Amino acid sequence: MVLETVLVSTALKTVGIVGSGLWLLPLMLAGITYHNYNRLDPESPPIDAKMIQREYDFIVVGGGSAGAVVASRLSEIPSWSTLLLEAGPDENEISDVPSLAAYLQLSKLDWAYKIEPTGRACLGMKNGRCNWPRGKVLGGSSVLNYMLYVRGNRKDYDLWESLGNPGWNYEEVLKYFKKSEDNRNPYLAKTDYHSSGGYLTVQESPWRTPLVLAFVEAGQEMGYDNRDINGERQDGFMVAQGTIRRGTRCSTAKAFLRPVKLRKNLQTALNAHVTRLLINPTTMRVYGVEFVRHGRKQIVLARKEVILSAGAINSPQIMMLSGLGPREHLQKLGIPVLRNLAVGDNLQDHVGMGGLTFLVDKPISIVQNRFQAFPMTMQYITKGKGPMTTLGGVEGLAFVNTIYGNRSWPDIQFHMAPASINSDGGLKVRKVLGLTDLLYNTVYKPIANKDSWTMMPLLLRPKSRGTVRLKSKSPFHYPIIDANYFAHRADIDTLVEGAKIAIKISQSPVFKKFNSRLHTIPFPNCRDHKFGSDAYWECHIRTISMTIYHPVGTCKMGPEWDSTAVVDPRLRVYGVKGLRVIDTSIMPTIPSGNTNAPAIMVGEKGADLIKEDWLSPKS
Ligand SMILES: Cc1cc2nc3c(=O)[nH]c(=O)nc-3n(C[C@H](O)[C@H](O)[C@H](O)COP(=O)(O)OP(=O)(O)OC[C@H]3O[C@@H](n4cnc5c(N)ncnc54)[C@H](O)[C@@H]3O)c2cc1C
Known about the structure:
The chain is an alpha/beta fold. Helix content is 29%, strand content 18%. The chain is built from 19 helices and 26 strands. Strands 1, 2, 11, 12, 13, 14 and 26 form a seven-stranded mixed β-sheet that branches. A six-stranded antiparallel β-sheet has the order 7-19-20-21-18-24. Strands 5-6-8 form a three-stranded mixed β-sheet. It is globular and about 70 Å long.
């Protein structure tokens, strides 16, 4: 009876989260419950604090990739008390499953943002607007992400330091990447660039298709090495590493918060939406935050500091709601300006070309309706193996350079997946992308459920810059996000070159074994251009302009003389006492690679900066 109740309630809860179209859920949930997964897991979920004290030493706003790290590390000091406020709930059984990553988008664990239409990008999405998922859950976007573990290029961090940020060069940040890491692939763990024993588990998915091996071999045929792209050099091809543990997702909440949940000096409050900072306008000191929890407005005070780790959209939103931001914008909304700062500027994201599809003749790709629910689910539950452990479908990664880049600092990344938009028969992927019916029905429906694979060329260092602005004074109105993709001509030119390299890779001899060929139904809005010409690829890129969800830069770190800087190199907000920002928004330029590991690195380093500032004899 107890078992049945648990099953039914978990199933109902989950179906509410991911929709009812998922045929394998009941089976999976039965298996998970039968094996009493929670009890076997040495790290059971964190404790949601019912009662919140009046005052803490530190308040961390947002328990995402960076915030979870900050809260965990601050609570290592027994005499400091820390409160972590997170707007979303805890993770669930579905978010644990690596292959179901896309199913979390547009669910209640997603802020479900959309960017403004520009007419230059996202033309194949409904109303010309791309979806911008962000995790609204403990663990933040590390719960929604595709788990790819990528650090970026050493030159990214050397650049940060050269912009006036001492302590942020590659050698310095490498220490922090390694501090977090527990790499479980021995061939990587033993190198100088990786480590074992940290909180964050990193390993390859235990399952792969022959297509990823062909991808790596094709890279070699093109003159690129099969190498650890997080190691000495970045250019090359490899089977992806991911933040997974025993075949399931290792979010930052699992990695950094669960092991320390019994510490008396750390409290975590879920479903606590921070609405503004409390700032004394005379002293310009932040002394607490206001938040809404279960419909009730509350305040909590900070003795030492408030740390904003709400991510690249919400950290600037909270600052602007509190009177810290661009003067004219705040005045227009009637928000008293406490400090004129370039908050919300400098928005950068990796935009890529989605939908490039190659068909193959052999049954070697991921085709949703071919996978057998029962054996696949049992393999996942009992052994942590099989297709359900694939990193959101992505198997291979590569860094290459176009004619505009160079080998030591590649300008294009490829994500290779043994599936494409057609592989689930139109059930989910087209929806999370927000594709128009015309585009899907014309191009992808004719090949629905056919064996295929994709490569997504991604622009690593865009020149275009966007903004985040408030829609209104209400903390519950979504901010206006203008990604401003392709404002700069060079961005589109580089991506077109990336597309051509991708096609060359797909034509290499190794892929011929599978009779791999480009899917050539033209996009309806691109028919005026000759298929395969530069102009056609440009039109394709502007039609399925794909974010891979890496917004950064909106509370830029920089030296005092840089008028666009919001935080100093110790991540303290200029002109305000007791306030730091520690998340992807501080990045002055976007790293050349996926941003989760860099966000965790920022969390690690940020926590150490706080410790240095409060514990050194001088302070
Ligand atoms: C769908 C998707 C796929 C991705 N795939 C990858 C990948 O494979 N590899 C990779 O490296 N990167 C990936 N990324 C990017 C990566 O996950 C992010 O860059 C990283 O998680 C950002 O970390 P953060 O700490 O800046 O913000 P987040 O992790 O987003 O954390 C912000 C937290 O603050 C909370 N919050 C926001 N506002 C408030 C408020 N007002 N009050 C209280 N709490 C608040 C949020 O709910 C959230 O928990 C992906 C991202 C997404 C969305």
